[in-house]
From TrEMBL:
Residues 33-494 form the Aldehyde dehydrogenase domain. Keywords: NAD, Oxidoreductase. GO terms for molecular function: aldehyde dehydrogenase (NAD+) activity. Transmembrane segments: none annotated. It is an enzyme of class 1 (oxidoreductase). It comes from the Bacteria. It holds the Pfam family Aldedh. This is aldehyde dehydrogenase (NAD(+)). The active site is at 265. It comes from Salibacter halophilus. Its EC number is 1.2.1.3. Belongs to the aldehyde dehydrogenase family.
Length: 513
């Protein structure tokens, strides 16, 4: 009856009551009409959260601007020390926060824990980074001159995150931005405000324990209109947004019109190429987890499986029998693989996509449908489906945030498969299953995958935080998380220093007075 300990988890995180928004702490600026968070697991109202008004927003930004004056001049390793403590606090709260992610968003508890683990990992990465914000020294063309490049903090980083990774994506941005000397203002998805509040509270506690000024990490809540306040605001030099291509185009254009910076992490249409030389067991594991994990609601979810004709029937058969083993149900119950999709709108989009696929000539080989009856009362549980389809179908060209896998046959060689894989507007994640080095290297070459992520003998989802995360084309082009993604959170400054007693001009220009 206690639903796998969720009540206790909510209490531990301080988000356990439906009310008028007493969660409006000082670093959560919100006095507007409350939104209620409803769990897709059982349609229960978990709690209400007040939203950010224009006035609240002004206060939040004012405080963030002030906090930035302090934070930017704190030595970077000291900022790293605070992020280290944040990572430790997340270790303490891993179980309840993972549970809340699962309950508010619907992914399996294991995946909820995995998401919190990503937060912990990025904190560790950022702590190291805090001593590695390296610039360059450059040889000058002039005698007695030195050149260098340094990286300075930008200011306020606006973060707009999606429901599907309600906390990890914020942490990728925040942990890195904080060690870079920026302050952050976060608008989580209005579908998952409680994970937002819980995460913000954990970080705010750490900042308070270290006697930091308020406003280093701020939460604002509400719908796109609150996001718009940030995208139109010159005081927010960088907006990092995750979500649909439709949303990303609006955010990108709005921020660009004021010549601000963006990091956009938008839709994917990720494919796995399965060549005749693939390990079929690995293929099966990678494809099934990629397609049904998080109920198909990852940006990196596997949408398309591009299989060579020689092994097509075999792959199809084993997929169909693997899908029979998938258990759908309460994601807090660790026996289940797949939980609900986020809401009824998502269910409708899933149903419409299946209809459209059929209309366009697709052949459904694993039937979809909405589950009913005991345990499925929320109406958000759908069956993972597989459709034999062609790459040019309109519906295959689109990203549907649901567990639908399109099975596509290719003839010829790996270049033929690549043409299909690259033949979509999105460019986030891609994979090849093959033990043939010529095929895999071709896939990784400049003539290969056009995506930001290209994997060999691994599925399309589940990227580690150490790499830069993001994609090309309509995926938006931004990079978050590891590698040198931190550079997007800083401004570059080139310095030329003359330590001689002459003033020679560059390019040998003569100018005598
Ligand atoms: C997303 O879906 O927005 O690679 C992020 C993955 C996760 C992150 C996905 N590490 O699937």
């Amino acid at each position: 009856a206690d639903n796998f300990g969720i009540q206790e988890a909510l209490k531990t995180l301080g988000v356990d009551e439906v009310n008028d928004g007493t969660f409006s702490g000082k670093e959560h600026w919100a006095s507007g009409d409350p939104i209620t968070s409803v769990s897709p697991v059982n349609a229960e109202e978990i709690a209400s959260v007040k939203t950010t008004t224009r006035e609240d927003y002004e206060k939040a930004i004012g405080q963030a601007q002030e906090a930035f004056q302090y934070w930017r001049s704190l030595p970077a390793p000291q900022r790293g020390e605070i992020v280290r403590q944040f990572g430790n606090k997340l270790r303490e709260y891993k179980a309840p926060l993972g549970k809340l992610v699962s309950y508010e968003m619907g992914k399996s508890y294991q995946e909820g824990l995995g998401e919190v683990q990503e937060m912990i990992d990025i904190c560790d990465f950022a702590v190291g980074l805090s001593r590695q914000l390296y610039g360059l020294t450059i040889k000058s063309e002039r005698p007695m001159h030195a050149m260098q490049e340094q990286w300075h903090p930008l200011g306020i980083v606006g973060i707009i995150s999606a429901f599907n990774f309600p906390v990890a994506v914020w942490a990728w941005n925040t942990a890195v931005a904080l060690v870079c000397g920026d302050v952050t203002v976060w608008k989580p998805s209005e579908k998952t405000p409680l994970t937002g509040i819980a995460s913000q509270n954990i970080l705010a506690d750490v900042l308070r324990d270290n006697d930091m000024p308020e406003g280093i990490s701020t939460l604002v809540t509400g719908d796109y209109t609150v996001g718009e306040m940030m995208t139109k605001d010159n005081r927010v030099p960088l907006v990092s947004a995750t979500g649909s291509i439709r949303m990303g185009k609006i955010v990108g254009q709005t921020v660009a019109s004021r010549l601000g910076k963006t990091i956009l992490e938008l839709g994917g249409n990720n494919a796995i190429i399965v060549t005749p030389e693939a390990d079929l067991n690995m293929t099966l594991m990678g494809a099934v987890f990629g397609a049904v994990g998080t109920a198909g609601q990852r940006c990196t979810s596997t949408r398309r499986l591009i299989v060579h004709e020689d092994i097509y029937d075999k792959v199809k058969e084993s997929l169909v029998s693997a899908y029979k083993q998938i258990k759908i149900g309460n994601p807090l119950d660790e026996n289940n693989h797949v939980g609900p999709v986020i809401d009824k709108d998502a269910v409708n989009n899933y149903l419409k996509a299946l209809d459209k696929a059929k209309e366009e000539g697709g052949n459904i080989i694993v039937e979809g449908g909405v589950l009913e009856g005991e345990g499925f009362e929320s109406g958000c549980y759908v069956k993972p489906a597989i459709v034999e389809a062609e790459n040019h179908f309109e519906i295959v060209q689109e990203e549907t945030f649901a567990p639908i896998l399109y099975l596509i046959k290719y003839k010829g060689n790996v270049d033929d498969a690549l043409a299909l894989q690259n033949g979509v507007k999105q460019g986030l994640s891609s994979a090849i299953m093959s033990n043939n080095m010529r095929e895999t290297q071709r896939f990784l070459s400049e003539a290969g995958s056009d995506c930001g992520i290209a994997n060999v003998n691994i599925g399309t989802s589940g990227a580690e935080i150490g790499g830069a995360f993001g994609g090309e084309k309509e995926t938006g082009g931004g990079r978050e998380s590891g590698s040198d993604a931190w550079k997007a959170y800083m401004r570059r400054q080139t310095n030329t220093i003359n330590y001689g007693s002459e003033l020679p001009l560059a390019q040998g220009i003569k100018f005598d007075i």
